[in-house]
Amino acid sequence: MAAPAQNLRINGDRLWDSLMDMAKIGPGVAGGNNRQTLTDEDAEGRALFQKWCEAAGCEMGLDQMGNMFARREGTDPDALPVYVGSHLDTQPTGGKYDGVLGVLGGLEIIRTLNDLGIKTKHPIVVTNFTNEEGTRFAPAMLSSGVFAGMHTQDWAYAREDAEGKRFGDELERIGWKGAEEVGARKMHAFFELHIEQGPILEAEGKDIGVVTHGQGLSWTQVTVTGKDAHTGSTPMPMRRNAGLGMARILEQVEAIALSHAPHAVGAAGHIDVYPNSRNVIPGKVVFTVDFRSPELSVIEDMEARLKTEGRRIADEMGLEIAFEKVGGFDPVAFDEGCVGAIRNAAERLGYSHMNIISGAGHDACWINRVAPTAMVMCPCVDGLSHNEAEEISKDWASAGTDVLFHAVVETAEI
Ligand code: HGY
Ligand code: MN
Ligand code: MN
Ligand code: MN
């Protein structure tokens, strides 16, 4: 496959302007974004993305999970398209680049090919996957998961947010439910550009992460039940404090993850305390333990020890405990051919690069099950993400998108 000429570059100013324009939609309270899935802000961001894609001459597609597809024709319309994309939805206290860089980086490829008057053999399709973050409607990577056959559409439609609103109803309400069957599209390959969301690339002084693997993840919902009681008049020995039980279990989550240092991680980001009243001892706590590791055996060990330690603590404190596996996926090895295209592009362009394992989950982790897939990463400042202070440099955005451009165009063949 002919590689693009070494001097071909995307338009970094135009990319940055688009990132800043998208960031104006669903602003956070501290300089980041709150553009949660299936909100009016999400709908506004989708409309802006669609307007840009149509202006770039793309034909738009939309499936029954609201996944968006912007297609640029190739010289061989029968050739399977090369897909490139990520997600436009954000965390409630999200940054401006998580997911968005991958979608708008894909659009920048189209815009650059238009500037250069280049037609690829394979069509190219820029993709926005619905609800990658999974905050409002758990689990994360929901729609790419349906696309890859990991969840049924009915199960996804029935997911409810904290107010009891259903995913399927909200998708209908914002007007972004398409007609296409989810997953019917066949891909020649899929590429995703994403910020690292960790400190490695910046610390190593590398512009590009060649993502060889995605670590596996496990979400276990834990319900600890004690007894609501008065915080003032209930003697300490009589208390069955579910909140204290959770605290002791979370200490064990930390210890379990650290016992598999340096790669394993563990924490609980979602915690619901009932009745959550200042002067009532919590009678019930529901929290989700997030364990991750590049090794499946380590994840399985952490899951087992969570149960052992959780049951021990519950018995000691006269509490009840229940565990439910509510999501996750095994470690992912990306397609060597596509990873090679990413690495060749970084070398051809002279960008410093290193192999890296993705700490975060991405749509690519599910799509890798149905198409040859690879990811390219750029650094982020202090490795910070899922925080409104998330920041990248314009040069990092351009370098990552240059590599994405070269890998996609080489795979789509000119
Ligand atoms: O959970 C994740 O790793 C992703 O950010 N949704
Ligand atoms: Mn993301
Ligand atoms: Mn994210
Ligand atoms: Mn081909």
Automatic annotation (TrEMBL):
| Any GO molecular function | hydrolase activity
**Highest rank taxon of the organism:** Bacteria
Q: Return the InterPro entries for the record.
A: Amidase_Cbmase, Bact_exopeptidase_dim_dom, Peptidase_M20, Peptidase_M20_dimer
**Domain called Peptidase M20 dimerisation: residue spans:** 215-308
Q: What UniProt keywords apply to this chain's record, in alphabetical order?
A: Hydrolase
User: Is Hydrolase there in the keyword field?
Assistant: yes
**Family, similarity comment:** Belongs to the peptidase M20 family.
Q: What is this protein called?
A: Zn-dependent hydrolase
- Provenance organism: Lutimaribacter marinistellae
Q: What is the lineage of its organism?
A: Bacteria, Pseudomonadati, Pseudomonadota, Alphaproteobacteria, Rhodobacterales
